[in-house]
Amino acid sequence: MKHRALRLAAVGVAAVLTTFGVAVGNAVAKDKMVIAVPTFLTGGGAPAFGIPARNGTELIIQAINKGQVPAPYNTKGIAGAQVEAIIYDESGGGAKQVTEYRNKVQKLGVDMFAGFVSSGTCAAVTAVAEELKTLTLYSTCGTPRVFEELDKNPKYVFRTMSHATADGVSLAHYVASKYGSANGYTGINQNYAWGQDSWRDFDLAMKVLAPKIKGSTKGQWPKIFAGRYGAEISALLKSPEDLVHTSFWGGDLEAFIFQGLARGLFKKKQFLMSVAGTAAYRLGKKLPTGIVLGSRGPYGIYANQLIDTPMVKWFNNAYVNRYGTQPTQPSYQYAQAILGAKFAYEKAAAANGGKWPSTDQVIAALEGATFQGVATEVRMARSNGHQGVTDHAWGVASFDKELGLPVVSDVMHFKGDCIMPPDGMDSVTWLKGGMKGAKCD
Amino acid sequence: MSFDRTIIGVTIAVVLMACATFFIPDWVRQIGLLSMAIGSVALGLLVLWRTGLISFGHALFYGFSAYGVALLNHLGVRDAFVLVIVSAAASGLLAWGLGFLVRRYRAIFFALLTMAFSMILYGVLAKTERFGSTDGLNIHPPTFLGYAPVDQAAQITLFLFGLLVVYGLMLGVQIYLRSVLGQMTTAVRENEIRVEYLGYSVEHVIHIKYVISGLLAGFGGAIMALAVGQVDPESMAYWTASGEFVFVAILAGTGNVAAPFIGAVAFEIIRHFAWEHGANLWQLIMGGTLLAIIMFVPDGIWSVLQRLVRKKDGVK
Amino acid sequence: MVQLLFTILTDGLIYGSYLFIVAVGMTVIFGVQRVLNVTHGSFYAFGAYLAAYLGGIWYDHELPDFGGFVIIFLAAIVVGVFFGILIERGLLKHLYGKDEHIVVLATFAAFLALEGVGLFIWGTDPYFFYQPQAMLGFVEILGMTYDYYNLSLIVLALIISLAIWYFLSRTIWGRLLRAVIFDREISQAMGVNVTAVFLGTFILGTTLGALSGAAIAPTISVLPGIGVEVIVLAFAVVVIGGMGSIPGALIGSILVGVVRAAAVHEFPQAEMFVIYAIMAIVLVFRPEGLFAPPAVRKI
Question: Where in chain A do CATH 3.40.50.2300 domains reside?
Fold first, then answer.
């Protein structure tokens, strides 16, 4: 009888070990550079962020490998190495993503990461990135907590754009100068970290920049992916405030706009939509005229319409030719992070006598540096040179019938140093203390 | 004596695993750690399932304990033993409290009531800024009775620690199932009224099981929190997490206390490769696998292993 | 004050009708077959996708506006009949008589697989089908604007519940159905074709599920993952209403809708908890639901 138990145990252990053994066999051999690129490929984040991000990544990496990117990036590959991108799904929550991060490093042996849409994922993987000593460039995720709270002394983690506080502050600047006579503002934001943070930053910045415009305490907080906003729209229609702030994105934003249009909401209230850039082209003529539209920086519609550098022209043309639609903010941001990688590796290689640099050398090259993204210059000027500072732009959206595209007008540009907290200061303290040290001119 | 058989088998397997951990790649060890966590929850489900009850809300205890670890950790508690035991005990306590309510219910009502509670926890966690709202909290690497390993040693130590916990859980559950109270399980499933006539309180039996089950899920959540170093409401408390635990329990079968862990390893491996090889396909692969198991191997992997062994034994 | 109450009631009725429409298919199937059908989320999603897909083609060719409404019902029937037969004959048939938890899990598995299939067929880009909602316009009542499309959801919910009530209590098929619900074995012995009744009910349930998706599609952006969200809502309604009771589901939906609307207007922060809190309270005090059909305890 005991033999049976033994054998049972042995069969179990053998089954487990065999599977592991088979699995060990297919780890990737490292003869070129491999970048892991996480973004949403399934779920509600895919259409608004994941797919444009994936497209932007594929486009820029192919062009880098062929040497087709305009100057200063017109050499083939990254420091001579051909680049392979492993684009994988970012959905499933922070804990699952930490596991995926480990797998990509420990099993596939990737050289670095570039990407991440969700603040939640960034908050989750920051610690593991430092632990596994893997270079990680956050392209999009917004939460200022990354370097202010979770990783105050970062080494391997960088972010190649301004964090979300810049969105709220620049929007408040825009509102203060364009809607100074408004009687107040309320909000409708998704009830999760992004929505909560977006509202908090905008609200605090408004108290500093436009103290006469009073904020409502009865903003709406629907669950993310709720999809139905009837009661919320009634409450907004009834609210006395002229302005409505929302950080809705993707499907929720589109649903909200359809339901709001059917009830004349956007004619009665002036909307400030901080991430409407993600839905603008898809909505086309259904995009409500006159809303203040944000793209989390001079990306997407702002770059496509207003910037005519060779880089943006090339990117826009190549993207439209290949995917049949205009690039949006995640396309630009992901490409920006990859260009950051190219810049850092090549600068480090040059300092290393042309040889492939070590991770430490790449980090030294990127810390505090300034590089050219697709649409804007990125200055790694905060958090010991790990947090990027980029400019911002806001304007009012309408649909241009001749172009057949949505356009922005009344655009104001904001310098990164005006809308980001100064180095060494955390966002909330800075906002509450009256935003001292902001350089706006 | 057949009592010893499982314990001997489990002991040998645990010792083998403990030796193996020094030779396996990091990512394999990580799969092992996750399997221990998920397997502990599935073991908790097994305890309930033998009574004919399934909880669709075990993420409640799993998430509660995982957040317990994170919060204690933020208060400065670093020792893995303290973190895991206190958090799991807190989950057990929560199960004890809720047990007064849920013990009255059976079948699908039981399943749904537990789910409702877990969704309330999800709501609270996603809403509370102190808990990091949907971003969750991260956890500093634990120490082990004063020993503070770094890098690979940290993971190896955690793996050994996890094995120790899991071994203890399996022994405990095995002894419990063999006790009179434990054996009441099947009787309750078969005919409650007769059990009552025998002089036992069915509600009492179920309550105890619920507490044990919540405690086990608590251990699972605590191990997960330490293994991943991060807790968040979507991975820890959403109903889909509860669904995965039931998935593992079905995959494993109820035949043995070791089954949930084998099921968990299988589950983690399927998920690992599904995620890696088909970004758009992982749902299809997971769903397809589960369907195939339900249709063709309704008693789970354990029954297959058992049959393999019996075939060889058959001649005797 | 009057305006506030009126707004809360109207918002609540609209949301309640939405919940009822979304949950009624699951309720019907649970009531007859005792199957808590997670695949319901897929029927909702496929109904929405097919309607939005056909609607997109229809409006691209600038065909008459009212066609959108025909498409809603057409999509519901096509998806409902196809998936009804596929899931009932292909999957559930093999599981009748098994542990009910296993059946739930099987439908959970099928749901996951169908999510994957949906991504395969429709891709990740959203589909828009806003025209039916936009064309009906809006009306002002007591100083509050409401659009006719969302108001018409109240009418749709009423029509569905009346039709089901009529079918169950006034037709011979309905009586057969009730006999099967009451005692499957005796009905079978009496010559009722239980197989046909089950298949028929399931197709009805899937069609209602697909109809909910198709009817909601004009108000949302149809994209991956919309099915997951409605499953929990439908679960909650089934539990609150009483496990298969149609009037229970109707009243439970409206209760949730009104409480939720009150929360949105007065305590927006609490919106997220409303439905789960009601579900937990009902389960604690009336575990069989608000309007559970009487059950015979068999020994």
Answer: 33-162+308-389, 165-296+391-432
Record: contact B228-A99, CB cut-off 8 A: yes
In chain A, residues with a C-beta closer than 8 Å to the C-beta of B269 are 19, 23
Q: What is the mean pLDDT of each run of 10 residues along chain C (299 residues)?
A: 89 94 90 86 95 93 88 95 93 82 87 90 89 88 90 94 88 84 82 86 94 95 88 85 83 92 87 80 76 53
- The CATH superfamily holding the domain A165-296+391-432 is Response regulator (3.40.50.2300)
Kindly report the nearest CA distance between residue C138 and chain B, in angstroms.
34
- The CA distance from C40 to C27, in Å, is 10
Q: Do A254 and C220 touch (CB under 8 A)?
A: yes
CA distance C211 to C76: 4
Q: How many domains does chain B have?
A: 1
| Chain C residues near any Cβ of chain A (below 8 Å) | 3-4, 7-8, 10-12, 14-15, 18, 119, 124-126, 128, 130, 133-134, 136, 138, 144-147, 149-150, 216, 218-221, 223-226, 228-229, 260-261, 264-265, 268-269, 271-272
Q: What is the 3-state secondary structure (H, E, C) of C132-149?
A: HHHHHCEEEECCEEEEHH
CATH at C76: 1.10.3470
* DSSP one-letter string for A32-86: SEEEEEEE--SSTHIIIIIHHHHHHHHHHHHHHHHT-SPTTS-SSTBTTB-EEEE
Residue C264 lies in a domain: yes
Give the residue from chain B lying closest to C109, CA to CA.
B287
Residue C228 belongs to what domain range? 2-285
Q: How far does B101 lie from chain C, in Å, by closest CA?
A: 7
Q: Chain A residue closest to B302 (CA)? A: A12
Q: How confident is the model at residue B4 (pLDDT cuts 50, 70, 90)?
A: low
The distance from CA A84 to its chain's CA centroid, rounded to whole angstroms, is 22
**pLDDT, tens digit, for every residue of A349-369?**
999 888 899 999 999 999 999
CB C79 within 8 A of CB C46: yes
C296 within domain boundaries: no
Q: How many CB atoms lie within 10 A of CB B294?
A: 23
| Residues above pLDDT 70, as percent of chain B | 95
What's the average model confidence in pLDDT over B165-179?
87
- Asked if residue C293 is part of any domain, the answer here is no
For the domain A33-162+308-389, what is the CATH code? 3.40.50.2300
